[in-house]
Design brief:
alpha/beta, Elongation Factor Tu (Ef-tu), domain 3, Rossmann fold, 3 domains, 6-stranded parallel β-sheet, oxidoreductase
Length: about 550
């Protein structure tokens, strides 16, 4: 049980600790803002007009403002890549937390949607209160033009009301288009609607700058509830009675001047930082020249794209965002670098494997003219951590092998420079032809390790999930892969038991890039490690 707790603490502990801290901050912000508007002197008259609707609307707005800033943090790709590559700045635990940035982004997004409903509902109550409790003594506080005005009318003609309706519509589009079914069936809808966040933040700043709710700016000269000759007798009597109940025995104060009210102003610091980071990436990707050297067709409708780019310094396991204007001017798709090598001076040669973007260019005239592409990156991914364990298990499903291809290539170039001393590589495919994508690389690495007297360094297991018919890798030069090929699906529990026996009292890095079924099975086994002292740390490849 202690070892299972150790594995759970390594895989889930930091993530849950951060989430608990984030929830606590949200609760604190909501409660602090609620009490500020409930009992704050500067909001005394506004609270008397709106009641709890004011407190709830402002408390939810505080949570919204906090999460609307945090939701952008996982999108700071350049910053996250810098932190991941700074070995002296961040430890392995912190770097693994960076892999959960997408989960944090989703959590902030859901929180924004939930508290938007709370915020809108509270403001609908406030609109009714503005109409019913119209104040003739403090006209600056009023939103309604007269007592009894229909709240729906002045909501639509009032600037914060219009921007609020637009914000709800944009948020609804972004939230619904982010569902799993839409992302799988039509990624373009998700992409374009999610980029409405730019419109969302512009409207949000205008919405806050509208100044619907105001605070009293001269509390010292005009204490809440003080008597003033210009105020109506009803207001003075009500204020004196309420303040008398609150401050029993205190003498009634006299106002030195009339109450003055000012609106709040928006806070946009972090959002401006994200705009700066986005602009930097846009300029970098637009100005850096990219030359397509060759496009090669591989089995199973897979295309290999080989490019040259100057000033490009990636690390094994990183990925890029690729844009091809001839396919789409605005869409950027993530691709893992399968091979990176120096070409001439500061020019780097890189390869990627694609199953979608460039498939429609094969055999077309666009291929002959070498379509123009833009590259944004490189960016960090969990696969970079493969080298930071003594023992690593890499599991790939189909085209999910691409993050590990660059790892294998780096080991082929010089495996001695890394901390890694044993690699378990498992590759599951439906089609036998898929194994030919990196057959030469796998066989070459195995021969290199045999020459270096380390035959136990690499453990390769290939699984063909399609069990119909007899299928083998018949070529003589791929005899090594043929001996490692098995029909069916891996028995993960037996594999983990084998790794435990061979690597007791060690931390094993588990890396997965494949279907959800494989990922879930590996994640469960990593957290349920029973007897030996081996701890498995789970890492899931995602492109946020």
């Amino acid at each position: 049980m202690s070892v299972a707790l150790k594995s759970w603490r390594a895989n889930e502990g930091p993530k849950h600790l951060i989430m608990m801290f984030w929830i606590a901050v949200n609760v604190f912000l909501f409660w602090r803002t609620f009490m500020l508007y409930f009992s704050g002197a500067q909001y005394y008259y506004l609270h008397k007009m709106l009641g709890l609707g004011l407190c709830i609307s402002r408390a939810s707005a505080s949570v919204l403002n906090f999460n609307c800033s945090l939701v952008l943090l996982p999108m700071f790709r350049s910053l996250l890549t810098f932190l991941r590559g700074s070995q002296r700045v961040t430890g392995r635990c912190v770097r693994r937390l960076l892999d959960k940035s997408k989960t944090f982004h989703v959590a902030c997004g859901v929180t924004i949607c939930v508290f938007s409903v709370v915020h809108v509902s509270a403001h609908l109550v406030n609109m009714v209160s503005f109409s019913v409790r119209y104040s003739e003594d403090f006209p600056a506080l009023n939103v309604a033009q007269y007592r009894g005005q229909v709240s729906q009318i002045f909501t639509l003609i009032f600037f914060p009301g219009v921007t609020g309706v637009l914000l709800v519509l944009v948020l609804f589009l972004m939230f619904t288009a982010s569902s799993y079914c839409i992302r799988v069936s039509s990624y373009e809808i998700f992409w374009y609607t999610h980029n409405l966040f730019i419109v969302f933040y512009i409207i949000l700043m205008l919405h806050v700058a509208g100044g619907a709710l105001k605070y009293q700016s001269n509390v010292e000269a005009h204490p809440p509830g003080c008597t003033h000759n210009n105020l109506s007798s009803w207001t003075n009597h009500k204020a004196a009675g309420e303040k008398g109940a609150e401050f029993s025995g205190a003498p009634q104060t006299v106002c030195q001047e009339e109450a003055h009210f000012q609106p709040h102003f928006p806070q946009v610091c972090l959002r401006c930082l994200y705009c700066a980071e986005w602009l930097y990436r846009f300029i970098r990707s637009s100005t850096a020249p990219v030359t397509i050297v060759s496009v090669v067709s591989h089995p199973c409708d897979v295309v290999e794209l080989r490019m040259l780019m100057s000033g490009f310094k990636p690390r094994p396991g990183q990925y890029i965002l690729l844009n091809c204007p001839s396919v789409s001017s605005f869409e950027n798709h993530p691709f893992t670098l399968t091979t990176v090598s120096p070409f001439y001076g500061s020019i780097m040669e890189m390869d990627i494997l694609s199953t979608c973007i460039f498939s429609n260019l094969i055999g077309s005239s666009a291929l002959l003219s070498r379509p123009r592409v833009h590259v944004d990156g490189p960016f960090g991914s969990p696969s970079e951590e493969v080298f930071n364990y003594e023992v690593s298990l890499c599991v790939a499903g189909g085209i999910g092998v691409t993050p590990f291809a660059c790892v294998l290539q780096a080991l082929f170039d010089d495996w001695r420079q890394y901390k890694l001393r044993r690699l378990y590589f498992v590759w599951v495919c439906r089609d036998l032809q898929s194994f030919y994508w990196f057959a030469d690389l796998l066989c070459g690495l195995r021969e290199r390790l045999w020459r270096d007297n380390r035959p136990d360094y690499l453990n390769v297991q290939l699984y063909l999930s399609n069990t119909q018919g007899l299928q083998v890798i018949g070529e003589e030069r791929y005899r090594f892969l043929s001996s490692r090929l098995r029909i069916g699906r891996p028995k993960w529990k037996l594999l983990f038991q084998e790794i435990r026996r061979a690597n007791q009292l060690k931390r094993v890095g588990v890396f997965c890039c494949g279907p959800k079924g494989i990922s879930k099975a590996l994640h469960t086994l990593c957290n349920s490690n029973p007897h030996t002292g081996t701890a498995f740390e789970y890492n899931k490849e995602t492109f946020s």
